[in-house]
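Q: Fold this one first, please.
A: Sequence and structure below.
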Amino acid sequence: MSLVAGQGPLSTQPAGWFTPPLAEGTVYIEPHPRRIQAFRGDTVQLDTEHALMVHRAGHPLSYAFPSDEVGNLPHEPVIEAPGYVSVPWDAVDAWFEEGRKLVHYPPNPYHRVDCRPTRRGLRVTAGDTVLVDTDDTVIVFETSLQPRLYVAPARVRTDLLQPSQTTSYCNYKGTATYWSAVVGDTVIADVAWSYPETPPESLPIQGFLSFDATRVDVLAELPSSGTTATCGCEL
């Protein structure tokens, strides 16, 4: 996630607007004074505290490094930052920022996750079978994303869920495991996900579940959704 993704200010579908509008192709670059390390095997290929963070529309968030610090790593010049270069993410085996191993992309310094206990209702059904019906939820406000409700397993018909082989990763919530619904003879794949181990900022939803509205019917009382509190009959 970055300023250029989701509904970020430099994305193709920003939640807000600039006045006057930014010029097309605007790139935002800023100092990123954190220790960045890159490894091939156990060997350090890059170790710097002089990186820049590059926010470029249409591209993942990326680092730029002083050209004299990348050694023999493959690199390309960053035109908007003279003297700096980019290194392909797959040029090394592992990236670390301040000792934390990164997956897929750098963490965004502007990204925030707020997890708030709430009485917002959530009702989830698979066909005629109710999987969740409660107003004991946690709402997650995450930068550039729509709010989402999570619910404790105790509020879910977990007897109708089975773990799947699907996983995904988020720099801010950790590795997600997915769950399929088994209703009679029907299996609906990956209807829900949860994060068994989260970083500190997402601890309130550790082990909680959220549901995919494209796979099951989800009635969620979310900000500006227009949904009234018609759910909340505890299972």
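Q: Good. Now the second chain.
A: Here it is, same layout.
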Amino acid sequence: MTAPGAAPVLTVRGLTKTYGAGATAVDAVRDVDLDVRAGEVLLVMGPSGSGKTTLLLMLGALLRPTAGSITVTGHDGSGIDVAAAPEKQLPALRAATFGFIFQDYALLDALTATENIAVAANLAGTTGPAAHRRALELLERVGLMHRASARPSRLSGGEQQRVAVARALANDPPVLLADEPTANLDASRGRDLARLLRTLADDDGRSVVIVSHDDRLREVADRVLWLEDGAFRQLATMATDPVCRMQVEPTGPHATWRGEQWWFCSDACRREFLARPEQFALGRAGP
């Protein structure tokens, strides 16, 4: 776990993204403050449309904020506000600072696992035999050396995501950003991926920011933040839907069973719970 008092690698102040103007303006993210420390795994959860992906894209300098700052401290100790950097500098900043892990893996099927990673190393400035060696080192680290010559279509979902993690490490970034990294994985492979991300934070001192609906990721996170309507809310005020395991405000659909109150994200989950309450009550995680 992250060391107490570790210095922030990612410092966010007043981060806002507004779409439209005037009466039709919508704040996808509004006035967010955030510090992420070296070696920390931060999990950001929230309902669909809450602004999670918008936040992640801004953190990774893939989307310009309307207001606010995003300061990243690199391996050399220098900090730069990526939100204020000129557009022409952003590709180099991304290549030096962030590793991206996507829900759909985003691997190139025309290339082998090794080549997919080597291309990312090329973009970060490592070329030729050195890029190939770097790719093999990273495949070994994620336990896929035996699949080095396989193309993505010949890999399982779990293997593809591990290649994607290795690719995200090609530039040795201080910050890893993961968008729903376990969404397409079954329970076992999802837990394996979560533990891998935890190991990368512990062993390398990397900051890992994950946005996800997946409650399994809680077990590897140092902190869990709840994002709703573009702003963070205290998890203490939230309840867990016993059916879909989403965090929900205790103000919507609900039911009483055996003297206890249960809260749901929708009437559909409420109906499913009431049809088989014993099945879902075993995994209760209340407000």
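Q: Anything worth noting on the second one?
A: The chain has eight helices and 14 strands.
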